[in-house]
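Weekly puzzle thread! Below is a chain. First person to post its structure in C-alpha cell form gets bragging rights.
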Amino acid sequence: MITRRDFLKTAVLSTLFAGSQFNLKAASSPVPLPPLPTPNHMIWQKREQYMFFHFGVNTFSDREWGTGKEDPKSFNPTELDARQWVRAAKEGGFKMVVLTAKHHDGFCLWPSAYTEHSVKNSPWKGGKGDVVKEVSEACHEFGLDFGVYLSPWDRNCPFYGDSPKYNEYYKNQLKELLTQYGKISIVWLDGACGEGPNGKRQEYDWDGYMKIIRELAPDAVVFSDKGDVRWVGNENGLAKDTCWSLYNRSVVEIGGGVQAQMGQGDPNGVDWAPAECDVSIRPGWFYHASQDDKVKSLSHLLDIYYRSVGHNCCLHLNVPPDKRGLLHENDVARLKEFRKAIEENFKTNLAAGKLCTASTVREKSSKFAPQNLTDGDRKTYWALDDGQVAGNAVVELGKPTTFDLILLQEYIELGQRVSEYHIDVWDTEQEQWKELIKGTTIGYKWILRVPETTTEKVRLVIDNARACPAISSLELYKAVYK
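Winning reply:
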C-alpha cells in the first residue's frame, strides 16, 4: 500500500528527475566514520528520557548520604507500590527506569545473600520483601526497560578498603542483580570512593566489573566514566552548546573530578560514549518532605529537556519515592504536565513533506536527495560527496510560516560528522538570506530555540564537518509551552 507521504515524495522526485538534477544509477553510501555507536547505544539514544528512583534508608533518615550505620529496621514503606512508580514514569513519557539497588550507605533493596544490611532485616513485609523484584516486575508489566544502580562505595561493608576482598563482594552482588531480575538494560556505576575501616582507600576492579556485566547483561549499556555512556559533568541535567558523542576513555580517571571532555566530548575521540544528563526533579536526590513545594517548574524542566535531549544526550530524571513508598502527588502531576508540553510543542512539524533543494547531492543520486530531510524518516538522509564537508539545503515552506524551534538530526550510524553550521531564513522584502542562528554539533538530535520567526524558506548551511555530512532531519515547530 502506498502512503500519502510516499506518493508526495515520489511526485517531488519525479519533478526533480525531469530537471536532470538526479541520475538513476546505484549510489554508494558514505563510508562510516569511526567511532560508531553500537546497537545498544542506538537503543539507549532512542529512549531519550529515562527515570531514576533514589530510595532506601536515606528516605527514612532524611539524609542524602547515609553513614552505613543505619538500622535496617528504619526501612518500612508500608504503602510501597512499584506499579505506581512505573506507571507515573510511563505516563510522563519515560522509556526506562533505574533503581538505586544500593547507595553509598550499603543498604540493599533486595535480600542479598552477602550482607545482613538489607530489606531482609527490615520490618517491611516481615523481612520477605524485595524492592528490586517489585520494580522489575512493574517495568515488565508496563513495557518499560529496567536498570540498576549499584554503588561501588559501601560505608557499611566491614572489609571495604581491603580491595581484593571487597571487589569479590561487589562482584557477587552484581551477579545477584544481573541474574535474578530478568533483562537489565543499563548498569549505572558512579566513581564514589573512600577509605575503609582499615584506613585504606578502596581500589575498584573496574575491568572485572565490566567483564561480569558484559557476560551476564549483554544488552545493557554501562554508565561510567569508562563505560558506554559518560556523565555530562554536572547534576543540573545540562549539556554544553557543543556536545560530541566522541570521547577518550583512556585519559579519564574515574572519580577524578570533572574532565573538560565530559561535557562537550572530543571531536578527535576514539570511543563512542554519548553523555547522560542526570538531574533530580527536586533539590535533593532522596525524598525530603520539606521539598514537597520545591518540585521543578514546567518551564525549568522544558529548559532541561532542550539542553539534554536537545543537545545530543539522554535525560535521566530522578523522582524519589517518599516514606510511604509512593511518588508524591506533586511530582506525578508535574510529570504529566511535562509529557503534555513536549507532545504539544512537537505535535506539528511545519516542514513535513515540504519541497527541498540542495547545493549538491551525493553522486547526484535520489537516494541521498535533500527531500529526505522532511520525509519524517530518520533512516533516510541527505548526503554530500566524499571529501565535501560544506554545502546547503533549502526547505521551501510554500507560504509564510512561523516557528521558534528547529530540530536537526544526523544519521549517526555513519558516525557524528558535523562540526559547524548555521541556519538562514529568507527575507522576502529584501530578497536575501539572513542568518538566524549558528551551531556546532548535531549528533542524534539537536534542538535550536530561536526567536519567533516568520519566513517562506529556511536554509541549513553546513560550514564544516569531520567528513561528508549525512543529515536525516530538518524539522520546524511552534512551541505552545515555553
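Puzzle host: Confirmed. Bonus trivia for everyone else. The mean pLDDT is 94.
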